[in-house]
Amino acid sequence: MKNYLLTLVALLFFGASYAQTGGDFNYSVGLRGFSLMQMPKILNETGGDKFSKLYVHGGLFKFNDNQISYRLSGTYYRGDKSFNNNCANCQFAEGKVEDYGFKVGFEKNFNYSRIQPYFGFDLGFRSNRFSGTIMNSNPQAQNLSVAIPTSTLQTAKDGLVLAPLVGLKINIIDQISVFAESNLDVFYSYERQDMVVQDAANSQSVNRYRKWEYLVNPVSVGIFFHLSSKN
User: Fold this and answer.
1) Contact 56, 41 (CB under 8 A)
2) Which of 23, 146, 215, 227 could connect to 141 by a Cys-Cys bridge, CB 3.0–4.6 Å?
3) Does residue 71 contact residue 183 with C-beta atoms inside 8 Å?
4) How far is C-alpha 155 from the chain's CA centre?
5) 24 DSSP 8-state letter
6) Does pLDDT of 100 surpass 50?
């Protein structure tokens, strides 16, 4: 048991004493391979606090200045989405969601070792759009054979994102690092909801809102390639 403890201490000491690698390069280019994140809510979506799994959906560019890096990042996602609106047996919507954003910010490493915890802050723009249909799913209405027409639904949210973050980088070799980070997106948006009933009158309703949302992104993992050595 003592030998295992001595070996672990030696490895930690070696990692802490090893010179910084990512900071020895002027630039870094990264790719987000996997993220677990919350998407902005659509209408009065139930279960909107669930996390979505996204694969290879964004990139980062960093300018390295010793323990501080200035970062530019972007993400994009498009996929199918279905959800219950208002309640589990009220309305059901399905369609396509498109979400993208751009951020600028900084991150600061806590040390110069091969294993580098860091914290940072991003500021940026985010857009979230949904296009699909929404229908009544009330069982009582269906049992009474009440004909309630389907409606087309278009929603759009555009706004400002403030995102504090914490993370961990591991320098595998001088030119390559892997990272994992968590962040909170504080999202202030202008939202437009456009619904058209598919009946003879084609009745249209348009609602507009300004909203705050707090979206937790527990983990995002990826890889960095360090370019242009300072030596």
Assistant:
1) no
2) 146
3) no
4) 19
5) G
6) yes
* Distance separating alpha carbons of residues 189 and 117, to the nearest angstrom: 31
CA distance 207 to 203: 14
Within the chain, strands assigned E span 25-37, 52-65, 68-85, 91-109, 115-136, 151-173, 176-197, 204-229
- Is there a contact between 142 and 174 (Cβ–Cβ < 8 Å)? no
**Above 80 in pLDDT, residue 162?**
yes
CB 198 within 8 A of CB 147: no
pLDDT in tens, 31-44: 999 999 999 999 99
Which tens digits make up the pLDDT trace of 53-90?
999 999 999 998 878 999 999 999 999 999 999 888 88
For residue 74, the cross-strand partners are 59, 102
Locate 6 and state its tokens.
């001595």
CA atoms within 13 A on the CB side of 89: 5
Both structure tokens of 214: 């707090």
DSSP code for 45:
B
User: What amino acid is encoded at 126 in this protein?
Assistant: R
Residue 219 · residue 36 · CB < 8 Å: yes
pLDDT band at 47; cut points 50, 70, 90: confident
Amino acid occupying residue 131: S
199 φ, ψ (degrees, to nearest 5):
-130, -170
Q: Supply angle C-alpha 158, 164, 167, rounded to 5.
A: 125
Give bridge partners of residue 194 from the DSSP assignment: 154, 206
Q: Report residue 178 as tokens.
A: 């892997």
What is the Cα 194 distance to its own chain's centre?
25
120: confidence class by pLDDT, cuts 50, 70, 90? very high
